[in-house]
Amino acid sequence: MIEEPKTGMNIIVKTVTRLTTGLILLFGIYIVFHGHILSEGGFAGGVVIALSFIHLMLAYGREIVLKKMSEKVSELLGNIGAVIFIIIAVLGLFTGGYLFFDFFGKGKPFNLFSAGLMPLYNIAISLIVGAGLFTVFVTLVFFRSEKK
Amino acid sequence: MLPLVVVIPIGIAFLISFLGKYYKKLSDILATVACISLAILSFLIFYELRTMNYEPLVYKIGGWLPSIGISMVVDGLTAVMLIVVNVIALISVLFSVSYMEKYTDKWKYYALFMMMLTSMNGLIVTGDIFNMYVFLELGTISSCVLIAFGTEQDELEASFKYMVLGTVASTFILLGIAILYSYYSTLNMSDISLAVSKGSSTIVITFLTLLFVVGFGLKAAIVPFHAWLPDAHPSAPAPISAMLSGVLIKSLGVYALVRILFNVLGVVGSNILIILGVISMVVGGFLAIYQKDLKRMLAYSTVSQVGYIVFAFGLGTPLGIFAGLFHLINHAFAKFLLFLNAGAVVYATDERNMENLGGLREKMPVTAATSLVGSMSISGVPPFGGFWSKLFIILAAVQAKEFTAAVIAILISIITLSYYLKLQKQTFYGKLSERWQDVKEVPLTMCIAMIIPAVICAGLGLLLLPQIKIVFLDPAVGVLANGLEYGSIVLQNIK
Amino acid sequence: MIEYFLCFVLFCIGLYAVAVKRNMIKIIIGLSIMGYAINLFFTLIGYVHNAAYPILSKVNITQQTSLNMVDPLPQALVLTAIVIGLAITIILVSISIRLYEKYGTFDITEIRKLKG
User: Fold this and answer.
1) Interface residue B205 vs chain C (CB under 8 A)
2) What's the number of domains chain B is made of?
3) Which residues of chain A lie closer than 8 angstroms to B15, CB-CB?
4) What pTM did the predictor assign?
5) Looking at residue B52, what is its pLDDT?
6) Chain C contact present for A110, CB below 8 A
7) Chain C residues with beta carbon closer than 8 angstroms to that of A144
8) pLDDT 10s digits, B372-397
9) Segment 2-41 of chain C within 8 Å of chain A by CB
10) Domain coordinates of chain A in residue numbers?
11) Which chain A residue shows the shortest CA-CA distance from C80?
């Protein structure tokens, strides 16, 4: 007889979550780093990364996830992403004379560095989106429990 | 230099949300410094445009040529709007430093404020129609959050209403952009303008005009679509009401509408705008008389005055466009000032119902005097700018043979005068009741922030002097009056 | 042609929900449906029958099919529009949660502190 856990869902869900969360996180990171050859890798990847944490939170309950990734940390990450994005954009202004100028060179197709600064922008965007979505989820879902 | 008008406010917004939590005073300083530099920058851009003999400055983002990349375009109209928006934002920040002390989380307010400023600057500067949509949405979202900033019942309700109607509006605008893209296969405004001037079917242009009038008309609160404005503008904190009524609906609504209709679609002057403008004048004016709430009356007055502006632009003649633009500037400063006055009254007395106020002139001399200037300017009493702009609107209407509309405009201006006299009488004149014996004048920074726009309001009539008019207003009117030549002029100036 | 008409039907369903329904959550859903209808319309504009996907790959380059590609620009624009839609939905939901806290109902006819 397995005891009913105190927080979160039952053991089947927890086990499946334990096995899949890492894979989901990895998939999100893959989309982010692959995004410069698709359109908008940053947004989709960021959403998937945030989903992996939300998945964990649904299965195990709030406290366990907030220990790993608290709201303050995620807000900070989002802000860092935004600041990185703007810094890269303004660096273009100083090096090439244009905002968003690609001072990295466009690179060759099918090589490792093939789209200039796009991967860096994608990483910054994924930080903003992932952290933002996670924070929004936490604040919306646990809105009333915070009040009490 | 040009992209800085967008980069500075958005960078400062993220910086404030990054650091403001830990250093409370820093957000005040950062926001003020950013707004001062933006105001200086807007004048510098105007100066640079003037040295270039009013040839449009085109800036290629990322070094990509327009129609592949996004471009920023500064011509006469853009430069004037930039100056108006940034000067008003600077005064608004001065006012907020003291006013926002009663709210918690002041740094969040500043971050959102800078976001709103980003959206307005970006929308004015951009030369790409989808980019315009993105900035429009940014402005809607940030202003909606600012309206709900107090999280009281009426603020949340007004914010919800505004957001729902604003989203419907932007859906229509996105549909218009989709149809534009499907016909002309480009999103660059000058490219579309060039393609339209080479010949296009009337049905498509009419349909697009309707879509954009509904979309931007909702943002500009022209009458059939005005329902959100009298709720939303009074509910916000005073500096934000002032910004919303002063510049946000003008840049997000009127400027974007006029730019797209005149310069992109080539519809210079249309009967739809004339009819909607006249209806807004009448409805807004009559509803404003019956209001008891101070800020609500000002909001209905905004509906009425935006009606004047839209009507004047709808005439499509150079004189009409000139009158509309001049009234836009006058109304921006006057209504901004009046909302600040209302904010000062609320700050001192915590009462918005005009029937309970009265006699505040003795206790709050600066507020009363500046409010008198604003009211007289907006209702069209001779030495102030508002008189001249209304005179020009009526002259333009007569010149365009719209006699009925001209008569209506004159009648509504009398009604405007009547409700502003009511406002003055009930709030600042009359007998001071027992309740307000120990009311004090507002802090010094707020007084300064009210005196500056009052001086500007009084001085705006000077724009009509021929030497200043040629420098400041004529190039802006020329851009709109040229209509579809906008496309080829901009494309010639790409370097 | 039929797909454009269906987009229009979807748009009208959303508009109906926004205009007629009284529940705030249903209004938000209606707004989302309107947004999706426009997004679908925008994506269909860029669609080309029997064309390749708009990603540059070695197969594409060698077979010279790069001219016959689906237009990628509407897809990028729609992604941007989806992001904006997400932000709008989040703000509307958070406002309605706050309103529910104040009034204890989602019915907009009972939330009437401000009159027209």
Assistant:
1) no
2) 1
3) 83
4) 0.93
5) 85
6) yes
7) 101
8) 888 988 888 887 888 888 999 999 99
9) none
10) 11-147
11) A40
Instruction: Report yes or no on B135 lying in a domain.
Output: no
Is B171 close to C35, i.e. CB distance below 8 A?
A: yes
Q: Which of C73, C91, C101, C102 to mutate to test the interface with B (most CBs of B within 10 A)?
A: C91
For residue range B159-212, what is the model confidence (pLDDT) as tens digits? 998 999 999 999 999 999 999 999 988 889 888 999 998 877 889 999 999 999
Q: Is A112 touching C (CB cutoff 8 A)?
A: no
B18 to chain A: closest CA residue: A79
User: Helix/strand/coil (H, E, C) string of chain B?
Assistant: CCCHHHHHHHHHHHHHHHHCCCCHHHHHHHHHHHHHHHHHHHHHHHHHHHHCCCCCEEEEHHHCCECCECEEEECHHHHHHHHHHHHHHHHHHHHHHHHHHHCCCHHHHHHHHHHHHHHHHHHHHECEHHHHHHHHHHHHHHHHHHHHHHCCHHHHHHHHHHHHHHHHHHHHHHHHHHHHHHHHCCCEHHHHHHHHHCCCCHHHHHHHHHHHHHHHHHHHCCHHHCCCHHHHHHHCCHHHHHHHHHHHHHHHHHHHHHHHHHHHCCCCCCHHHHHHHHHHHHHHHHHHHCCCEHHHHHHHHHHHHHHHHHHHHHHCCHHHHHHHHHHHHHHHHHHHHHHHHHHHHHHHHCCCEHHHCCCHHHHCHHHHHHHHHHHHHHHCCCCCHHHHHHHHHHHHHHHCCCHHHHHHHHHHHHHHHHHHHHHHHHHCCCCCCHHHCCCCCCCHHHHHHHHHHHHHHHHHHHHHCHHHHHHHCHHHHHHHHHCCHHHHHHHHCCC
Of B10, B15, B62, the CB nearest to A100: B62
- CB-based contact (8 Å) between C41 and chain B? yes
Domains recognised in chain C with CATH numbers: 2-103 (1.10.287)
**Chain C interface includes A143 (CB < 8 A):** yes
Among candidates B14, B59, B62 on the partner chain, residue whose Cβ is nearest the Cβ of A86: B14
Per-residue pLDDT of chain B (495 residues; tens, 9 = 90+): 788 889 899 989 988 888 887 887 888 899 999 999 999 999 999 999 988 888 888 888 887 887 788 888 998 899 999 999 999 999 999 988 888 888 878 888 999 999 999 999 999 999 899 999 999 999 999 999 999 888 888 888 889 989 999 999 999 999 999 999 999 888 898 889 999 988 778 899 999 999 999 999 999 888 888 888 888 888 888 889 999 988 999 988 899 999 999 999 888 878 889 999 999 999 999 998 888 888 889 999 999 999 999 999 999 889 999 999 999 999 999 999 999 999 888 888 888 888 888 778 888 888 888 998 889 888 888 878 888 889 999 999 999 888 999 999 999 999 999 999 988 888 888 777 777 777 778 888 888 889 999 999 888 888 888 888 888 888 888 888 888 888 888 888 887
B251 domain residue, yes or no: no
Query: What distance in Å separates residue C32's CA from the closest CA in chain B?
Result: 9
Q: Are the beta carbons of A79 and B62 separated by less than 8 Å?
A: no
Residue A90 in contact with partner chain B when CB distance is under 8 A: yes
Q: Do the domain assignments include residue B223?
A: no
**Mean of the per-residue pLDDT values for chain B?**
88
Question: Which residues from C are below 8 Å from A131, CB to CB?
Answer: none
> In terms of residue numbers, what domain contains B404?
270-464
Q: Is residue B297 part of a domain?
A: yes
